[in-house]
Amino acid sequence: MSSVLVIGGGIAGIQASLDLADRGVQVHLVEKSLSIGGVMAQLDKTFPTLDCSICILGPKMVEVSQHSNINLITYAEVTKVEGEAGDFHVTVHQRPRFVNEECNGCGECANDCPITVPSEFNEGLGTRKAIYVPFPQAIPLRFSVDKDACIECYSCVKACSGQGKDAIDFSLEPRDIELDVSAIITATGMERYIPWRLGEYGYGRYPNVVTAIEFERIICASGPSGGHLERPSNGKIARKIAFIQCVGSRDQRVRQPYCSSACCMYATKEAILVKEHEPEADVTIYYIDLKVFGQGFQDFVNRARDYWGVKYIRGRPGEVRQNPKTLDLTILYEDTTTSVVARNEVDMVVLCTAMRPRDDTGELADVLGIGLDDFGFIKVRDPLTNPIETTRPGVYVCGCCHGPRDIPESVAEASGAAAKAAEVIWRKERAVNL
Amino acid sequence: MTVEESYLPRVGVFVCHCGVNIGGVVDVPAVVRYAEGLLGVVYSESNLYSCSSDGLSKMKVAIEKHGLERVVVASCTPRTHEPLFQAACEDAGLNKYLFEMANIRDQCSWVHMHEPEEATRKAKDLVRMAVAKAVLLKPQKEPEISVEPKALVIGGGISGLTSSLSLAQQGFRVHLVEKAPQLGGMLRDLGKLFPTNMESWELLAPRIEAVESHPNIVVHISAEVGAVSGYIGNFDIEVLSNGSVENINIGTIIVATGADNLEPTGLYGYGEDPRIVTQMQLEGLSEDELVDANRIVMIQCVGSRNEERPYCSRICCSVAMNNALLLKENDESREIYILYRDLQTYGTQYTPLEQRAKEKRVKLIKYLDERPPEVITGCDSLVVKVYNPLLNEVLDLETDLVVLSTPLIPNADAKELSQKLRVPLNSDGFFMEAHVKLRPIDFATDGIYVCGSAHSPKEIGESISQAYGVASRAAIPMAKGTLRAAAITSQIDEGRCSGCGTCIELCPYKAIQKDEMGIARVTSAVCKGCGVCGASCPERAITMSHFTNEQIEAQAHAALGRVED
After folding, report:
1. Beta bridge partners of B54
2. Architecture of domain A194-354
3. Is residue A1 classed exposed, middle or buried when 0-12, 13-18 and 19+ CB atoms within 10 A define those classes?
């Protein structure tokens, strides 16, 4: 049977894998972290339908784990690619979890683990144990030991044997897996820009200035504050909130001059979520240009403004200041539709930060032998004629690893990349039959 | 109780916490205990996430261990999760129609999150209803249908050409139907394409050539789709061309009919002065015709983002900037203004256009929604008046050419085609996908897909990506070769049917016909199980399998007869 390698288990990689597996192609899905799901798993709800993100993603993740044509390889990276379209030979390096396949995800080990560290999934706002699953719906639902945090007290081992199991194994070693595939799809996604360098907004210094992804975790019912809109500084409910757009996007200072495409809409969604949780809240979005270019987007903004009372102010705030006693924040801005310079005092500021290339994109590109664009995203052969082909034949791309885009675009493209991979397989099979 | 006491199937109830989504409101352990006391229930348990792989494997183990014959899951919503639980039942050897779901999240914990006690009572009610139905469930068979490995692509623009070619290169046969006498669609009327400034014919010509010469593709030009019948795997299509009718049998359908450009009659003086043109018309003008155009004003959102057409047409800002850059390229001294509301250049491909336009001193002026520009005609010179909020003054721009950026609008035939295919349009009149996030290029109707600007305005690269996307979606059933049809269909009791024909008229899927005896007959593969026929039959001759009157009545009785624990 012909097979395809899909790199990255976010929504794009999941869709590409399912499309191929459903038509009978063997898929090897390699995910770098402990679970598939990607950024979409971290989101509370999605625009414009306000569907619960994990509730619509979860079934697809489970489908991946149960599909007989998908070989899911998590906690692993592609380290070598040889050959050519139709006949690639790939080496995958998998790190050990120190938990074997006997684990059923019961979580008794984590209950007994004495070590608590910040949870990456909750953007450091909540905690996890040294033995953990990144989030409750993780696929595979198998625990993993964080060796950097673990003190090897073996409480987890005892807890596991208390459940009649012997799933924790500190002797597990990394291993290399060799695969032969006809085509490769890269779906490695993006990274959120962390605005350390944009000092004017005080991120990292002012506790009540958070990024949009941190906000998603705060507002999410399964997040660290149980979905209560708590200010990080004191746990009190935030009632006056400002969203600032284009933080690290359209900004030459950080060499990210591009628009990140999804922020105006996710800010609008987050503003509506604030109002759903706290109907009396005062919510303002500061923007440069309101990007409403997708289907239903303008309707969604109209709903936010007219029904929910979200305020939109055109202008990029110059500075956020913090009151050192109350830790309340003041936004200094110019409304560029009236040229009025003003200030707005709020409880919390949400920075809608740019999407940027993952730090390891360069390494991956080297391994795959493909090019990068001016911004460090994966380069497509021709944005007009071949928008899902990389610079190497047989290697295709979908989702945010070749530039910011929203979920539907990533999903449609993922199917597109699957079609391109299927074309390679057909060419190969036909050549064999001739 | 309508169940014969002599035989009661063994029911298992699985109550999901859904993390805190349900468990944070509803007292899940109490619901589990309550379920144990219900007639027929022999086993009940709770799961943190029933849909997790652990939850599912526990369910399979319980089915085998306790000999369960019916499974009830009380959790989120069948809309997203029913197939998953049904698959688990099948894995454990249980017919998937012996599964019933109680929605205690969307319809309970979420809407009653501030009344935990009442929510718990309601959850018990919902579980009781589900169990009452579950004991009456019958196994159903899903007939296997074969899939013709042939696709129909409607529309020969860049999207349709790309889909056709990809499917052909995956080994499937394709019928491409194009209304116009030649292939190419809207791209035929365009000049240089951004972001690479390729000439449109350079993009089109090789694809048209490849499509026309591919042995797997049959091209029908000057042709239209006539009557459509059948269902996924076996659609019967009439292709009408030059007065002749050809009947083809195909497995899947791709809608790639594109969009039209708005004719901005009555807007900004369009039609009153030849110096007022659309972007589309501008692209058709030669440099000779433009030689005197030294000052050009472009106006964005002409006929879009307003009450009549609320949507943004996505491509116009990039189109305007690219055309401005091309005009500058030919004559650097030209003064070009773009009057916009919000610049919609996005992502890494299109934002650079904005940078380049600024470098070339194209003047970008924001206009306010409530103070749109005015075009003054009737004098020798054209004047555009616009209020510039940054300067707080009205500018009078004397201009040689006004270019209106008009939106893409739904294809004139979209409505008719949507009726033939029985797929929906959205409120803007574009074809509507099955799910905006996760099924962006599928229709809710199996076997029909949509790509390109037929769905909503798109850039060319985006249309091409989507075109490949539908080539994958359509290939899935064709590659498999067979499908299982839905078992929830209407059944007609021949003895009761009076042949009145009410159901035939009402069926939205045209699944019912009269036989030679005048009795209604259902084509099961076409029936979607919507139940309209069953509800309207005056003789009560129609039953929906899996939703029988008996089952629904049992649920209603259970709903009204609250049993306290």
Report:
1. none
2. 3-Layer(bba) Sandwich (3.50)
3. exposed
| C-alpha–C-alpha distance, residues A254 and A304, integer Å | 31
The one-letter code for the residue type at B189 is D
Cα(B454)–Cα(B475) distance, rounded to whole angstroms?
20
Count of CB pairs separated by less than 8 Å, A with B: 238
Name the region of B266 (left: φ>0; alpha: ψ -120 to 50; beta: rest): left
Classified as helix, coil or strand, A116 is: strand
- Give the whole-angstrom CA distance, residue B506 versus residue B503: 5
Interface touch A417/B389, C-beta < 8 Å = no
In B, minimum Cα distance to A399 occurs at B465
Above 60 in pLDDT, residue B535? yes
The answer to whether residue B564 is domain-embedded is no
Phi and psi of B531, rounded to 5°?
Answer: 90, 0
Q: Classify burial at B141, counting beta carbons within 10 Å of its beta carbon; exposed 0-12, middle 13-18, buried 19 or more.
A: exposed
Find the closest chain A residue to B193 by CA distance.
A384
Q: Do B476 and A104 touch (CB under 8 A)?
A: no
pLDDT the model gives residue B117: 96
Chain B residues with CB inside 8 Å of A45's CB? none
Contact A221 B166 (CB under 8 A): no
CB contact under 8 A, A384 and B312: no
Band the pLDDT of B563: cuts 50, 70, 90: low
**Is B347 in contact with A66 (Cβ distance < 8 A)?**
no
Residue B91, judged by CB atoms within 10 A of its CB (0-12, 13-18, 19+), counts as middle
Contact by Cβ (8 Å): A188, A403: no
**pLDDT recorded at residue B77:** 84
The CA distance from A78 to A361, in Å, is 12
Residue A125: how many other CB atoms lie within 10 Å: 18
**Which chain B residue has its CA at the smallest distance from A106's CA?**
B54
Residues B282, B387, single domain; the answer is yes
Q: What is the mean pLDDT of residues A218-227?
A: 90
Q: In this predicted model, what pLDDT tens digit does every residue of B153-172 receive, in sequence order? A: 999 999 999 999 999 999 99
pLDDT for res A141: 86
- Say if residue B457 is in the same domain as residue B536: no
CA–CA separation, B161 and B219 (whole Å): 10
8 A C-beta contact, residue A380 and residue A389: yes
User: What is the value of pTM for the model shown?
Assistant: 0.91
Query: Can you give the residue range of the structural domain that contains B91?
Result: 11-140
Give the CATH number for residue B124: 3.40.50
User: What would the pLDDT profile of A11-64 be if each residue is shown by its tens digit?
Assistant: 999 999 999 999 999 999 999 999 999 999 999 999 998 988 998 998 899 899
Integer Cα distance of B491 and B522 in angstroms: 7
Show Cβ contacts of residue A334 under 8 Å, excluding neighbours closer than 6 positions. Answer: A315, A318, A340, A341, A342
- pLDDT (average), residues B318-345: 96
